[in-house]
Structures are given as structure tokens and as C-alpha cells.
Design goal:
alpha/beta, single chain
Length: 229
């Protein structure tokens, strides 16, 4: 039975992955932003453990986790949580940049740093759910794309640094995926939202499970997923 730490398990892709792993009997450790959310996740996934740390405030993550029971080993660290806020560069204030860079880049880097000893012990897997915006930046997407381009750099560097320790590193780049984030994006774009046009979270979860379950003689470095309709 493998042990997985998941961010973003409350909705969308993260929830789809958490359900898959929970249904097959793996052990889940779910990161929540506060105690109330942790209680909700624990009730949804029977037997799962929770840890509380706010990805919006990476400077406090180490202190928050230091007051909680940490796992001895970890088979995977799945960075799935993320935030988005669109706008032209001329209108983006530092607060908007900080919000997205903190949640999408700095906090994943900090969590990875803190859990690397456990991942090395298990020769585990770090998986980053990135975005198509992590490969190509379009108008209005500057801050979000910058955070995701940085996340790609983090993953690429980590892969080279940890290969000798047996830690696998994968980046998954989904296109537009149905869920709460896409609802917000459409609202900011002034467009009507139709979930049927976009990738189902379960389909992205299938690609993530493929990377996790790949035999140890191989490693998926980068995986791009696009809407099929």
C-alpha cells in the first residue's frame, strides 16, 4: 500500500485523483488550507490523514507542518492545487502576482523541500500538475503563466538533482479542464461556460495514475493532455 500526499484534493483534478487512490486502498495524506477544510476532507475520504498548511503563505508552511505528525516515508507528492487570476500586464498589481506565484510555485517548492527526505526513503515520485500555460503564455495570462513556467523549471531542476536518489519527477500539462477553476476563467474572460467542451478531471486523473504506476525501469518526464473534442 503506497502513501500519497495530495494538494488540491477538494475539487477538480485533485478530487478525481484522490478518489482513484482511495478506492484502490492506498493511504492518503490530504493537505488542507485550514482546520475546517481538513475536517471536510477527512469525512469525505474515510481513513485519510490530513495536514494543515496554507499554500497562500509559503513562509509559514514549515512552521505549520512542524507542529503536526509527519509521515516517515512518502511514495508520492502530488502538487495539484492551484489558483488563477487573469488580466493584462498593465493592470496586474504586485498582490495578484504574489498570490499566484506563492500558491502555484513557491509553496510547491517549499513542500517538496520539506518532504524530500521521506520521498528519498521510499524512492518516491513528485508529480506537478502544471498547465498548457506553463508551455505557452497568452494575453491576459501573464501572472499565471509565469508561475507555471517557473513550476516547469522547478520540476526540471528537481529531476536532475534527485535522479541519483531514485526520486522520479513528472510534469503534467493539461489543457482546459472542466471544474471550478475553469468556471472562474470563463467568468473573467466574459465567456459562457460549457463543461462538455473541456477535458473531464477524471481523464487527467487517468494520465496521472499512468505516470504513478509506471514500472520502475521507466519515468514519464512530461505529459501534455489536450481536449479531444
Amino acid at each position: 500500500m503506497a502513501t500519497h500526499l495530495i494538494t488540491g484534493a477538494g475539487s477538480g483534478i485533485g478530487a478525481a485523483v484522490a478518489r482513484r487512490l482511495h478506492e484502490r486502498g492506498d493511504e492518503l495524506i490530504l493537505l488542507a488550507r485550514d482546520a475546517g477544510r481538513a475536517k471536510e476532507l477527512a469525512a469525505e475520504y474515510e481513513g485519510a490523514r490530513t495536514l494543515v498548511a496554507d499554500l497562500a503563505d509559503p513562509d509559514r508552511i514549515s512552521r505549520s507542518l512542524g507542529m503536526q505528525q509527519m509521515p516517515d516515508r512518502l511514495d508520492s507528492l502530488l502538487h495539484i492545487a492551484g489558483v488563477v487570476d487573469l488580466g493584462p500586464i498593465v493592470e496586474l498589481r504586485p498582490k495578484t502576482w504574489h498570490q499566484q506565484l506563492n500558491a502555484n510555485l513557491v509553496s510547491p517548492a517549499e513542500l517538496t523541500r520539506l518532504f524530500l527526505p521521506q520521498l528519498r526513503a521510499a524512492q518516491g515520485h513528485v508529480l506537478f500538475v502544471n498547465s498548457g500555460a506553463g508551455l505557452h503564455a497568452h494575453a491576459q495570462w501573464g501572472a499565471y503563466a509565469a508561475s507555471k513556467h517557473g513550476l516547469k523549471a522547478l520540476a526540471d531542476s528537481l529531476r536532475e538533482e534527485e535522479h541519483g536518489n531514485g526520486v522520479r519527477v513528472t510534469s503534467v500539462y493539461p489543457g482546459r479542464t472542466a471544474g471550478p477553476m475553469q468556471v472562474k476563467v470563463h467568468s473573467q474572460e466574459g465567456k459562457e461556460y460549457d463543461a462538455s467542451r473541456w477535458i473531464a478531471p477524471e481523464s487527467v486523473a487517468t494520465t496521472i495514475m499512468t505516470a504513478l504506476d509506471l514500472p520502475r525501469d521507466a519515468e514519464i518526464n512530461d505529459l501534455t493532455v489536450r481536449p479531444g473534442r
